[in-house]
Amino acid sequence: MRRRIVAGNWKMNGSKDLVQQLVGDIREQVAGFDERVKRALDVIIVPPALYVDSVVSQGGSELATGIQNVGQWQSGAYTGEVSSDMARDMGCQYVLVGHSERRQLFGESDDVVAQKIKCVLDSGLTAVLCVGETLEEREAGEAERVVAGQIQQGLADVSAGQWSRVVVAYEPVWAIGTGKTATAEDAQAMHAEIRGVLEQMNAPSEDVSILYGGSVKADNAAALFAEPDIDGGLIGGASLKAEEFVSICRSFPVDA
Ligand code: PEP
After folding, report:
1. For residue 11, how far is its CA from the centre of ligand 1 (angstroms)?
2. How many domains, the chain?
3. In this structure, is residue 153 part of a structural domain?
4. Is residue 109 assigned to a domain?
5. Is the alpha carbon torsion for 28, 34, 39, 43 positive or negative?
6. Ligand 1, from 10, 168, 215, 241: best to mutate by most atoms within 8 Å of Cβ?
7. In a domain, 254, yes or no
8. Ligand 1 centroid vs 104 CA: distance in angstroms?
């Protein structure tokens, strides 16, 4: 059974005060959601690594915690890196892997992404694999091929028993932080493609949650979440405002 998920990626933003205020506000409002909504929805806060501990304790049972990146090793002489075992030790449940900012600014290849996915799954955590095409790739008609390649390579080593801990986030690079969002129809078409790719990989594709990310806001989330293959959102900028983020969490169709 796939889950509905709304994950807030704070990127390199935040402070001790913000954690206390924002996580406190979001938690309080999520605690007031209808029981049926709470059962079907995972709300995840993904702060910078230094604040994971505070988010875990502030988030209580209403909010899950993720980390934005881990190294492709579990321990050793890798100055500055943090491992997925450490993330689990600190109470994280989710790890973003292969966010486009990591791919573009830090040169993360699909091979490194695959190694990180393996570490995350071996640690018992849930991996959120981020994929998406650039504007040039979309305009060249390459979007589907690029996204399929990122999924096939990133998830190449997932074993049968690990698929229940895999989430895919489709984030067209041209929509991240730009205010431009894919139309609900275009996003749905890509999500259906992704499910097809997962099917070809012998994954239980109907059970894998596929999130959309890229300038999701309170005023466009409902249209996106109404699509049959869009199971939630990975939210950047709008996750730093409690009202906006909570309103995105409330944007799923009521009866589904
Ligand atoms: C992101 O960082 O994953 C993201 C989708 O950012 P934004 O919502 O700001 O476009």
Report:
1. 9
2. 1
3. yes
4. yes
5. negative
6. 215
7. no
8. 14
The pLDDT value recorded for residue 1 is 81
Mind listing the pLDDT tens digit for each residue in 128-180?
999 999 999 999 999 999 999 999 999 999 999 999 999 999 999 999 988 88
pTM score: 0.97
Atom of ligand 1 nearest to the CA of 169: 3
Other CB atoms within 10 A of residue 176 CB: 22
List, for residues 22-54, the tens digit of each pLDDT value: 999 999 999 999 999 999 999 999 999 999 999
Tens of pLDDT, residues 98-114: 999 999 999 999 999 99
Ligand 1 neighbours, Cβ below 6 Å, are 9, 11, 171, 176-177, 213-216, 234-238
Residue 205 lies in a domain: yes
* pLDDT at residue 177, as a whole number: 87
204 by DSSP, 3-state: which?
coil
CATH code for position 88: 3.20.20.70
Dihedral sign computed on CA atoms, order 41, 57, 246, 86: negative
The Cα 223–Cα 207 span in angstroms is: 22
Could you give the percent of the chain with pLDDT greater than 90? Answer: 96
Positive or negative: CA dihedral 9, 113, 115, 129: positive
Among the options 99, 108, 137, 193, which is catalytic?
99
99 assigned to active site:
yes
Task: Tell me which residue range forms the domain holding 8.
Answer: 4-249
